[in-house]
């Protein structure tokens, strides 16, 4: 699988073939760019490393800040002023862009620091990035869980330099820079130094070592050298007083001379940073002050990280004759495993050891698709993440909506509420070991009564109205955990509050009431898969009325739309939102809605919408994504959708759909699930849709269109028979709802053809 991954995919403006059919009716309101980066990363690692241009939002690439439409260019070429550490993956405007400890190899004087050299001969694979600067210097980067290793190959030069800017951070966009509050830098020995900078409340420490035998080592401040200096200390830095500072080495280079630079990182001081470097790169050789072998550390770290990627990516194997589809899937799985960043024993904000996680920057996107994927493939990681979230709540007062390498849990509170409860409820219902559910229940319940939760308790409704749905579902999830630990009284209280979701809807329209909406409109949020879908459908007027609303939303019978261009105006955006249309995976608020058809016995419609999305909205190359990947939220949607399964987050069930691969093997913890097909025809964009005819699970007919997560996670064999026309499969049963438990399927009967258009 690893050999098919393209880390460049999604790193530039969307460049997909023009969609046809149903997909041509979907409207894209958000940035038409994946916002990924090709830098070296470790699976769920703390560290990444990549070429740095200062572009939005990862520091890599060519684009300005943009929140709508085609991204405007900041630069007319791929370029870099050096190589930085810690990058977001696929996010948008989160105002936290890292890119710390910029390393710049140079054959120019220090005054030229900040020069942008053209990037040439780029190469990337999981755990490795390389490029040649126009200056002729070749750079190679690899990382470990808490470390990074750089290797630079210089041309012949009489006065080459290797410069580290410890003050750098953020992006070259307005208000995008990160200014350290405090900084301490110390040269310990030739080629050895340590530093700690405090940025946005987070103390980030580094221990670094360079193989620069015979080179002069110097501190510098404001691009001026400090001969003989061994320390720089800044107790208080202001944006108005910041001047760049750092460390450099200078010396002669022979043609092809190689220099290696190694970083160990920690959020708990320089001693821990050195320990992390030793842990990631090997024990200190006898008689050496350096923790690593100077001749093998880069290659050894690269090999180990590559091996870990190979193991993790092999958790899912697919069969397809299409190398293009293999690459798209493999890269989607890769992007799903980059974030969040696991940093055990590294919390800078409380003294106890234990799980710590950051870069849950888009939990409002990740909770539907990416967190269920982590739970399925790596249950031990999911338990670690659960503990990390609970520690955040215990120490800082809230279960986070997003959490970064910075102080504060509530910076994303307008995006959503009670999202961690969804993830925790899934773990509890699955029986994932290692979580203290009494402890978890206390925080799940208390968290629901803070912020928006106070008004929800008083009035049964809160605006923005989507928070009403979030909180009601959060109470539903908390009730599941309460029952698990035997707190029946609390479960009943939560059940009553969970029923307040109905206050968010207008029975006259079957849609949500008037309110403000985050990154979407009323229609995008009106079809969320709730815990009581039967009552939701009844509120809309019944099955036929609900199907009619969904059909309108997905553009059945509609004309193709024109997408917005660069810097769209207010009138253009309002006209687009007035279409009341599916956002086509350009944005995530409605990403689960294609599966809402299952609840009205129309899995054929799900097959049609998912087919259009999988084959028209994802492609190859730098422009291969329809919108921001959002820390893997979008890529993990593709993984699930193409496998023919979709997790309903917080409800511990999977909905079944037509797979887009003839066979797949999914390693679910210690078990394996085989998804096989009969009657399969290799799908193509704009080609015919395949519909489920029958399903068997472990040899028994499955008439319903869903499976409990516990059953699926035990593994086995799911066989899906496909055909060119809709069938009766899944039409007579309904997935479970609170007010209407799962409808039993009637015995199988001959397929009743249904018009795919209506």
UniProtKB/TrEMBL annotation:
This is Alpha-1,2-mannosidase, putative. It comes from the Bacteria. Residues 731-751 have a biased composition (Low complexity). Residues 723-758 are annotated as: Disordered. GO terms for biological process: carbohydrate metabolic process; glycoprotein catabolic process. SUPFAM superfamilies: Six-hairpin glycosidases. Residues 295-723 form the Glycosyl hydrolase family domain. One of its GO terms (molecular function) is carbohydrate binding. GO terms for cellular component: cytosol. Residues 4-168 form the Glycosyl hydrolase family 92 N-terminal domain. It comes from Friedmanniella luteola. InterPro entries: 6-hairpin_glycosidase_sf, GH-type_carb-bd, GH92_N, Glyco_hydro_92, PNGase.
